[in-house]
Every structure is written in structure tokens, then in C-alpha cells.
Amino acid sequence: MPALDIAQEQEGYLTPEAMTEVAHALNLDPGYVEGVATFYSLFHLEPVGKHRMYICTNLACMLRGAYDILAHANHAIGVAETGEVSSDELFSTEEVECLGACEYAPMMRLDHAYHYDLTPEKIDALVAERRQGKRTKHRG
Amino acid sequence: MAELRGSHGKARHHLLTQHFGAAGLATLKGYQKLGGYDTLEKALAMEPKALVDEVKASGLRGRGGAGFATGVKWGFMPPPDGGPRYVVVNADESEPGTSKDRYIIENSPHMVLEGILIAAFAVQSHQAWIYIRGEYDRPYRMLMDAIGELREAKILGPKPFGKDYPLDIQMYRGHGAYICGEETALLESLEGKRAQPRSRPPYPAVKGAWARPTLLNNIETLATVPWIIKHGAAEYTKFGTEKNRGTRLLSVSGNVRKPGVYEIEIGVPFTHVIMELAGGPFEGRQIKAFWPGGSSAKVLPASRMDVTTDAEALAAADSMAGSGGCMVADNSACMVETTYRLLKFYAYESCGKCTPCRVGGNWAVRTVAKILAGEGSRLDLQILDKIQAGLQDGRCLCGLGDSAGWVVQSAMNHFPEEFEEHAVRHTCSVKRERAAASA
Amino acid sequence: MPDQTAPDLGRRGNPPQTAKQPGAPGESPDSTGITLSIDGRTVTVPKGTLLVEAAKLLSIEVPVFCYHHKLNPVGACRLCLVEISPGPPKPQTACTTPVAEGMVVRTNTAGAVAARADILEYELLNHPLDCPVCDKGGECPLQDYTFRHGYPTSRIDAPRLHFEKPIPLSDKIALDRERCVLCYRCTRYYDEIAWEQELTTDQRGVQSYITNQFDRPLQSIFSGNIIDLCPVGALTSRVWRFESRPWDMDHTASVCSKCAVGSTTPRSTRRSACAHRGWVASTRPGTMPWKGCCTTCAARSWASRCARTSPTKRRSC
User: What is the interface pTM, i.e. ipTM, of the complex?
Assistant: First the structure.
């Protein structure tokens, strides 16, 4: 799996070629690697945005309005459905299960960092920051 | 770092969280200034068996969800046969509503590592693995940094504290699968496979990671070990109830004013946890229900908030202490909707190995979706009831299926009128109230 | 001892298998013999025998999908739930539990009967129920078990899940993912016996399905065996697709003459014309559980014979 991580870092998602390459490097069968890759939700098999918003909508976050946040995030990046990639290929959203930061609900994971106590304004600010190409170090 | 939401500072029952928030606690220097790793040094001078006995005497029980006696589990490890044996630490905290392990790691990674090393020595293992969920970027980095510091300080290496007993800790990141919290699925995942639980026996103590004896413990469990060894089991047993010693961390979340991770003495009632520690409900709202031990624990109505936090009392109330994730819902939450959300979670996270969980979980989701869409009938309630029964009582290979069954069973049991309303009258009074309130 | 869920080998006219299975009839109970009771009847079997095998000796049917006596038990399909005492007060899988002295097993308690019926209902939830056009229809354990252990009426009105089908796994094998009960016999066969990884499971939960890697045709010379291993109509032969019904066939024991192994293979005929040659060759006693080479040579012979003969004589080989 760490090898698949490295492969995914390159393209943003796993292509059949990448999986085959990993398989050959580890002396495994490509089918086996494919089976593993499709099992775990953090491996992407289809193109995703450069900045991926994993928004938790599980119970603790849902009770504090996570679905409104998700809808707002989709609106902010200009997609109709969760999972779509924005037209500038910068963003995509994903509805995920509990991320284990329930006391800071609603929250999401964006660019390998947790963002807490989300409000529509916070989402807008984060999106705008990344649209401008800035990546300030904002850590929860 | 975000503000600390949870226990910290000095209090009689803050065994783990006393120093949380102290400057530099995450560094080796800061931790050692507060007496860190003295306990490991002490432990290394003891007999491994004495350590196991001490933990047994303390009555510490696993904090991952099952609540198995930790000392007994350590005792299950067969005598060393010269081959490798492992300590695998479960940091795949994915139970909805649970964030205590992250809280511990982010505040005091060295406390966790010290516990792991003591456990490794106690069961005569030289190699520990920390399986941490992939989404935990910051805890992962903090543990990696802490391990780096330990290697530099030669506490990890061939001769920790001068004793000829090589110790090492490796990290392994998960990739998004709730099922990896199940111990045998975690081992499969650690071996780089699809995380499908194994059929037991053999238990991991006999045949675990790479078919070798393996001890699996939760982060919180191991983080408690240094305190027990330092102060002695007798001190630890002064806390808690007779069958449930010590303190534990509850992550309180949902519709409360002050959500956070609170260390409590086991046995205090949930009224104290929800109404006092977590600040109670918001202005003008009332608490309606709470899940006392993560989403897998059966939901309880607000009238049962008097129940205490020990496993026996919760079992008597037909729920469980689980992973200590206490989620609170107020009267703005529709119980059919919450059930639907949790079922979706269990269906999505089902590994697909055994039939009931794979198919039954999905069927339950579809049935509740139908009821929520206003297309249900009394028959659907009967079917739902049958599905939940079909998921429980050993029908499934691991506990995930049972949990999905409990979600439906407890919600239908405590809030039958809401299900009835949705399925038969096709309305939702909660939604109406919400709309009226916002108007 | 024939496997219960595989096509009934006896009916196909196979010679009785001589390989010694644990607990095979006629084997004198040695010093390690374990005596237990199943549904009130007592049986003595060697240590290590699985409950499901012990029940077979008494002709008590414990239905199974995932269990196969040549594969390691996994306990995945959960169909073999029985009640065991002493033990926890909930049903256990007979296919993963070894016998123990004095064990009392009950397959017909209310709990066990309900458990099996529920599991079968789950199996049928997304099943297309296309038995009239299924090549397995008539010799299908899913049909038989549902008849014997399932609920007499259906409560399923949910829309079924659909997969693209049939998927050609190779030029000889078709996969129908809707019929699949995910017993993992085929993938485990690949893992444990063929030692290859061409066939794997993708995705998880209810979306899991069996797949060949990146849709490349199966190359393994052992691949044909999975057709016979499949307990339902998910893996069927493309060579003999939609050509006959199982009850039209006569079966004769035969030996494959295509290579030096001389594998035992059933020869099926329909109206005196050879219809189908079984893929699985039985294991000879004392040898590795090695499974003959019939896919390759049978298929080669098929193709060459069919090409050589006129259309009217196609089926006489």
C-alpha cells in the first residue's frame, strides 16, 4: 500500500498502468494490486481535483450541519454533484465517514490537513485561497 | 493548533490528560522533564511476567470497543519460541463519534510510545507496529517525529537504557476502511491485503501478523499503561467501579455546547458528562437521544442519561461502553434520518466478505431510504425489523454486521413513533418543527 | 466423499473417490477419534474433522456455499450456522469449527433454521432469478437449498442491484456477477491451488465483484475448474452455453486422453452425443491436490474437433 501511495501522488489517482507498475515492482500480480486498491477509499481510481475536500457527514458532523456545508462546498467550487471535479480541475469534494475529530464538527480534510468548525465563510475563504494559488499553512 | 477541547490540567481523575496542553509535551525533552520514560526504564528492570501481573491486577480493560481485560490478553501470548512476535497498536480510530486516540496522540505522542514499549517488553516482543488511519496526517507526523527522537536518544535501538533488549516501532498508514479497526482485518491490511476479517480461532495471540503471535491493543489502552506501572495497580484500582477500574476518555460530540474529549472516572453518570462537562443542550433545545459508546453502541433516549459510564450499567441499559464516543442529538434531529445516516455508513464500510453484512446492510439502507422518501408502509417496518434480527447474534463474521443491526433495533425500539410516522403517515414532525422554528 | 454442493458426482457416474478424507466412512476410529452428537445421533470422527464433514457422515445436510473440502475454510457465506453446546449461545459456522469431544450439535433448532433461511433470503436479494435460462438451473445448490431451507414466500420488493453481464473471463468462461453469491471459491482456488492471482475481488461491501485483472482474459491452464467449483450459475461454460438442460444429460466416467496425466473426467452426453466434458479432474490418492490440465487440452480438442466435423456431427466427439 505504501507503494500505491507513491503511485497515487504522481497522477493524483491510480491508473491501470500505475497499478501494473506497482505490481511488477513488488513481484505481485496486477489483479491482486487492483483488488487491494479498489478496497480502500483513499485510493482514487478516477481523476480527482488537485485539492480534495473530504467532508465528514457522519452523525456527529451531520448533527451540526455537515450536509449544508457539503452543499455549500459544492456550490463554492461550482459542481452539481459531490464527487465531480470542478471545471478548473482544482477542486473536488467527497463525502466521507467519520474522520475522528468530532469535537470540532463539522470538519473536513483538505490537502492533508484538518479544518475545523466549518462555516460557509470558512469554505469560501479556503477555496479562494487555493484559487489564488496560495497555500497558507492552516492547520487545525 | 486549535484550542484544546477536552480534559487537561490537574484534577484527581486526570491520569492521562493532566499535562495535556503543557508546552513542549510533544517533544522528548518536554516529556522527559515531566518524568517521561522513567517508567520504561523501571519496567525494563522488572520481570516481564511481573509487568503482565501488574496490568492484570490493575483491572485495565481495552478501550477500543470490546472492553476485554488487557492483562489477560497479554497473558494469552504464548511463551517465546525464538521467532518474531509483534505488538500491533490499533490507531485506526474510525468509529463515528470517537476522537480520543487522536486527542491523546496530538497531545502526548511519547506517552503512547512509552506504553507501547512497556507492552512490547512485557510480552517479550522486539517489534511494534502502529497502524494509524490514513486520514490522520498530523498524528502520523507527530508520532513519526517522536519515534525519530527516540531513535536519536537511543531509547529505540539495540540497547534501550543500557539493557540488552532491542526495541523498535514502525508506523503503517491505513487507507480508509473502517473495518481495519477490527483486529484481524487490521492484520490483513497490515500485511498489504484487502482488509477482510479472518475467521477466529486462531486468535492473533497465537497466529497474528505474518502468522506470528501478536498482541493488539488500542492507543488509549497502551497510553494508560505507563501510569499504571509508575503508580502501581493498587493506585489505579482506586478509580472506577469494581469491575471497571480506572478512568477513560469520552469524546462528546453532537448537539452540545462544549463538545470535547473528557477524561472521566468510570462510573460517573452520563448526566454529568453531557450536562456538565459538555455544557448541555443549546438554548431552547432539549436532548433527545445519545449514543454512549460510538455509533455501534445502541442509542439511548434522554431519559436514560442517568445511566453510569461503566460497561455493566450500560449493558444493563441494553447498550455498551464501546469506544467511548458519546454523540448527543437534540430535538432538532430526526431519528429516522440519523438511523439512515448510520446505516449508510455500515453498508459503505462493509468489507463484503460475509453475506448478512454485505447484503443485509444494503437492504436496510434501501428500506430506510424508502421510508424516508415517504414511500414506506407498515410492511417495510416489519422487513426492517427482520433485517436487523438477521444481522445479529453471530450471523456475521465480525462485529460490523451486528452493529448495523443494533442501529436499527435500538432506534426502532426507543423511537417507534417516529418510524411509524414516517412509514405510515409519511410525515416528519421534527422536520415540521424545524421549518416552523426557522420561519 | 463427494462434496455436497458440487454437481453430484455420483449422479454423473464418477467412480467413487478413493482419496482418504478425514472422517471418511469405514475408517476405524483410532485413538484420537472424537465422539460427538449431531441432532441426537452420535458419530466418531478423527480429530481435526470439521463439523460440516462430520454431519455429512450422518447424511445430515448442512448447506454450504463457501466451504469446499479442498479449500481452506473461510466462514464467509454463513449458511452453515448450527448451534453448538458447550459454546456461546449463538449459532456458529459448522464449516470452520472442528469437532470436540462431547460436543452436542443441533442443526434444527429454531435459531439455526431461521439463520439459514435469513441468509438464503439475503443471497436471493440481488439474485436475478433467471433460473429458466440459467445453465446451472436443475443442478444448482442455491435452488436446492432455497427449496429445502429457505422461506416459502418472498418479502423482497426492493429493486435489485445490476451488473454488466455476462462478462467473458476467457474464451471458455462467462461470468454473471448478478448470480454470484461471493463465496470466493473461485478466487480461493486460484490462491490456494493454482497459485495464481488472475482472479480477484474488487471493491467492497455490496458492490464487491469477482474480476479478472483489468479485464484481460484468464490465461491459467487451470481456469476451467472454476466453472465446476462455482456453486451457482455465476461461472458458466461459454463452450456449452445454452445448449442443454442438466436433466437431459447422461454422465459416464471417463479418462481424459489428451495428455499423460490421465485425469478422471466425467463425460456428459445428450441424446447419445457428447455434450460436455467436465473440467475438474479428481485427485488421485496420495498425490498433491493437483487438478489435471483439462482446460487446455479439452478446449484444444474441442476446437479442433468442432472445426473438423460437420455441423450436424458437431456434438459427437
Answer: 0.90
